[in-house]
């Protein structure tokens, strides 16, 4: 198992993108691409990899598996079969780390099919930490945890968002996958300043960063991953890079894929906001 007391820092790989079959040809053709992310559950633990992923690996592009179904925040222990698959995918991809969400996706045997927010309580902290440790026991690489976008907060919460995230990271030894679009969405929907969260998170634990688009609907901002990255999110990228060494940044796009020129422009905008060279 990797040393959890002094977690390794994910090398700064500039700007990457989430690999999806629908845009596989575009991703494979990016000349300056050094890292990508793939949904762990979309990769078979055995057998051939999707051709596009194999092309990236053959080029020396680092590919990080990103889990969406472990339910780390659930009251029940994580499913051993899902953990085994997660670990096997990391080994297949020779990944330097893996990532999952601070969320739950099932309870009482019912699958929600969606990432659900946790109450910010110490009991929830303990549940997440216990499950993270169970997962870490099957991994040979570090895990980074991603706080999600939430359209509501549970009542009677005991901790601020920064305190909640920080306690989980400290007690579990995990790294932080910071989704800057989620920071923007949560602050906008709560009427708070997103910079307050950035100023109170342990940025030295950031492994890499998600950047994504969203849209407003009925007065709430939704982190859709199907819309263009708005300027306020790009501004937060710059603020983050001003506060800490520029981390690896990754464009998330999960549907309504635009033409290649539009995707390239989004990647270039992220590179410009962070000071990294373009990957296109």
User: Number of helix segments?
Assistant: 9
Q: Regarding CATH, which class? A: Alpha Beta
CATH architecture: Alpha-Beta Barrel
CATH topology: TIM Barrel
Shape: globular
Intertermini distance: 36 Å
Order of H and E elements: EHEHEHEEEHEHEHHEEEHEH
Question: Given the helix and strand composition, which structural class is it?
Answer: alpha/beta
Q: What portion of the residues fall into strands of 2 or more residues?
A: 15-25%
Low-confidence stretches: 1-7
Rg estimate, integer Å = 18 Å
CATH-level-4 superfamily name:
Divalent-metal-dependent TIM barrel enzymes
Helix amount, in percent?
A: 25-40%
Mean of the pLDDT scores? 92
Strand order of the largest sheet: 3-2-1-12-9-8-7-4
The tally of domains stands at 1
Number of strands: 12
Main beta-sheet annotation: 8 strands, parallel
Pfam families: MbnB_TglH_ChrH
Protein name: DUF692 domain-containing protein
Organism: Paractinoplanes ovalisporus
Describe the structure.
Strand 7, helix 5 and strand 8 (175-179) form a beta-alpha-beta unit. Helix 4 runs parallel beside helix 5, helix 7 packs parallel to helix 8 (231-243) and helix 8 (231-243) packs parallel to helix 9. The chain is 36% helix and 20% strand. The longest helix has 15 residues, at 122-136. The chain has helices spanning 24-28, 51-58, 80-93, 122-136, 161-172, 180-190, 194-200, 231-243, 260-274; strands at residues 15-18, 35-39, 62-66, 98-102, 104-107, 110-116, 143-147, 175-179, 206-211, 215-217, 220-222, 248-251. It has a single domain (15-274), classed as TIM Barrel, CATH 3.20.20. The strands form three sheets. An eight-stranded parallel beta sheet has the order 3-2-1-12-9-8-7-4. InterPro entries: MbnB/TglH/ChrH, Xyl_isomerase-like_sf. This is DUF692 domain-containing protein.
